[in-house]
Amino acid sequence: MEILHVAAECFPVAKVGGLGDVVGALPKYQARAGHFVKVIIPMYRTRFLYENQWELVHEGGQHIGPYHFHYSIIKEKTNKLGFDMYLLDIHGLLDREKVYGYQDDTERFLAFQVAVCDWLNKWQHKTDVVHCHDHHTGLIPFFMKYALEFRQKLSDIPTVFTIHNAQYQGWMSWDKYYLLPPFDTWKWGMLDWDNMINPLAAGIKSAWRVTTVSHSYLDELKSNANGLEKLFEYEKGKSTGILNGIDTQIWNPETDSLIVSNYNEEIVTEGKLKNKKELAGHFGLDPQKPIISFIGRLVGEKGADLLPDAISHALYQYNGDINFLVLGSGEPHLEHTLHEMKHRFSGFYNSYIGYHEPLSHLIYAGSDFLLMPSRVEPCGLNQMYALRYGTIPMVRSVGGLKDTVKDMGEWQGFGIRFHQPSVWDISYSVGRALDLYYNRKEQFDWMKKFSMQIDHSWDKSAQQYIDLYKSLKS
Ligand code: ADP
């Protein structure tokens, strides 16, 4: 099959979070299974752009409302990523340092989506499927079906829309209506939710099929979807949950060049200890005690606001028999608090505030436990990386965390689960972790070995997407 993925991120070209990981890995696994896979994202000014060879494959002109723009599409020359990687540039609009966070993000991603449709419209053949990811691409299924310029050629191409995070919906006011390409006006309701143009809702309504990145998340969205609950309930017939996987080539403790000592399940205890010593040395922590880490965006969704109280509480309650380490960036007040705490709990707690991909690998390898007290977790990749590196996940039972982590109290359980995103639940789980670490070494060693052997690779899920695409072919 020929598959075109459209997204805002793709690792290693541009990554902000899990979306980037998924769009960098799923296409690779689909290509390996014999499909012809293309990925297109905006051209940002990232390192990958400057360090690789590109060829110009298409140029065109389009407009958003009265504003005309010229766009160009370049393709990575060597098929380095295992699939065809395309970048779409709109000079002055997309070619910036950061992926998101600009005042004109609405216009940026709108222009990107219009340009992608324009490019597709110029193809000599029809691709088998267009797979769009998250709200930045949610208008594409709508444009393909209803925009006057595109519908004739594109409306019969199947579209799949995957929701990686329904908290962000790309809302824009109806004042911006004039920026959209002309479309069947009686279809305006497909764009609308609560009197706003809602690209996420438009994607859900217009795409041929909708997927979410875990089964539990799909269920939860019917009661908690930042205002879209009724829509998820209504569209359940065309929606499926397909669990994300991880790129086991990049995330492999046996070959990972970003960690200090490579290891496999045979030597997991020794291997992890060497990485732990490096990590503890660097952050002034005690390698004799367990290291419990947090990696992620410092936002309420991830339960990051609970960390300051939970960490201080656990350090007092368990007499400092633990180390805590935080790697993350996000809300400024949380960044500030989590930074300042290092002085108060020096020797027991430390943090790196910012984004640091290599450090994240060392933390997965050198920690004993990874804490994820998420309020919402569509799939979560961190717990799967942790398991792959023999690090025991301590997770709140929600979304994808529920689908991928089995509590150690169950038969062949390999993690710690708790129910509420609360200081009390986290503290209780820390107690369970300490008991495992200090008093039940044998079970702890078995859990590390066992978790490393769990297959979270993309093989199965990539095939589930292929089966879904095939079901759409007439
Ligand atoms: P999200 O909701 O943020 O996308 P996921 O669990 O799906 O959460 O994916 C998070 C990804 O981002 C993982 O690869 C994780 O290691 C990475 N990550 C998050 N924060 C940081 C950071 N500060 N430094 C390095 N990597 C990070």
Distinct bound molecules: adenosine-5'-diphosphate
CATH topology category name of the largest domain: Rossmann fold
What is the residue-mean pLDDT, rounded to a whole number?
97
Q: What count of domains describes the coordinates? A: 2
Give the full name of the CATH homologous superfamily of the largest domain.
Glycogen Phosphorylase B
Describe the structure.
The protein has 474 residues and is α/β, with parallel strands linked by helices. The protein has two domains: 2-245 and 458-473, Glycogen Phosphorylase B (Rossmann fold), CATH 3.40.50; 265-452, Rossmann fold. It has helices at 18-32, 47-51, 105-122, 140-146, 151-154, 199-206, 215-221, 229-234, 268-283, 307-317, 332-344, 357-366, 382-388, 399-404, 423-439, 441-453, 459-472; strands spanning 2-6, 36-42, 54-64, 67-76, 84-89, 129-133, 159-163, 192-193, 196-197, 209-212, 239-241, 291-298, 323-330, 349-353, 369-372, 392-396, 416-418. The protein has a nine-stranded mixed beta sheet, with helices on both faces. Helix 10 (307-317) links the parallel strand 12 (291-298) and strand 13 (323-330). Helix 1 crosses helix 17, helix 4 (140-146) crosses helix 6 (199-206) and helix 10 packs across helix 15 (423-439). The longest helix is centred in the N-terminal third of the chain and has 18 residues, at 105-122. The model has no long low-confidence stretch (mean pLDDT 97). Residues 17-19, 21, 165, 295-297, 327-329, 355-357, 360, 380-382 line the site of adenosine-5'-diphosphate. Adenosine-5'-diphosphate (ADP) binds next to helix 1, strand 12, strand 13 and helix 12.
